[in-house]
Amino acid sequence: MFLLRQPSAGRGRKLVLLACLVAGLQSLFLVGWTSKKVDIYADGQARQVTVNQWLVGDFQSRSQENLRIGDWILPLPGGWFWPGLKLFMARGTPVAAEVAGQNIWPREPASVASELLNREGITLGPGDRVETNLGSEDPHQYIRVIRVEDSIEVQQQPVDPPVVRRPDRYLPPGQEKVVQEGQPGVRYYKYQVRKENGVEVERRLVDTWVEIQPSPKIVAYSSRAYPEVTARAGDTLMVIATAYTHTGNRTATGIWPYRGVVAVDPRVIPLGTRLYVEGYGYAVAQDTGGLIKGKRIDLFMDSAGEAMRWGRRQVTVRILGD
């Protein structure tokens, strides 16, 4: 014979709690897999959508709302969905951001520059500059980090040697001679240079000095003057005669040279004087030359070959007059 025992009061309460828990889990499971109507407020509009997700974060990752970096959503992504839930979404403000001329983010919400820089792990150097309009009402938000680099540059340049001229009474009149070749010196220039994003924007001279002094070039020149001997009609002179040909230039008297034109030193033979040159013939003094000094003349030839064949000769010149 079996006896049917009644459950105790404590055990009954446990069974009731277990049944409630199972029912709650079933309800939660059904809620999770049952479509729910949710009101979404975004972009200034309100609309109702049907969701099947349990968590707001699941909806955020799978939705077609085109959520982007910087957009935010309430309730937070870890919250649960319940029928009748109101979901609020806000768009982050687009930010045009660049560091040292390089774009780094297409969008990033922030109210102050330091917040954005800290978030992205961007540190500023002692001279770096930040330009931004974050926090303003301008719809085109931007932030620019300009890398500023200050440095010292030292450059060197040669210093031309000075020329010192010294008289020398032993040199023939009109001649010069280099006694000592000069040596260039060295001058240093110290600049303070500023670069922004790698581009030089400022260069300021802060110091300069001569590190190596130049040595002068010494040139001796004749201190003897040409004798003031002006030939007159009927005079006969012994001179050194050379020859030249076309140079593409007019003569000192403004005419184009031709055979019979002679370059002279006007202090000895005045321009315009008619001459008879031994071995050359009749001629007129109508030109001058840098090397034609004293008793020297230069005879014009029609070709370079003739001038070379003439060479350098000592000849007799008879002054015929003007």
UniProtKB/TrEMBL annotation:
GO terms for biological process: peptidoglycan turnover. This is G5 domain-containing protein. GO terms for molecular function: hydrolase activity, hydrolyzing O-glycosyl compounds. One of its GO terms (cellular component) is outer membrane. Keywords: Signal. The lineage of its organism: Bacteria, Bacillati, Bacillota, Clostridia, Neomoorellales. InterPro entries: 3D_dom, G5_dom, Resuscitation_pf_RpfB, RlpA-like_sf. It comes from Moorella thermoacetica (strain ATCC 39073 / JCM 9320). SMART domains: G5 (SM01208). Residues 145-225 form the G5 domain.
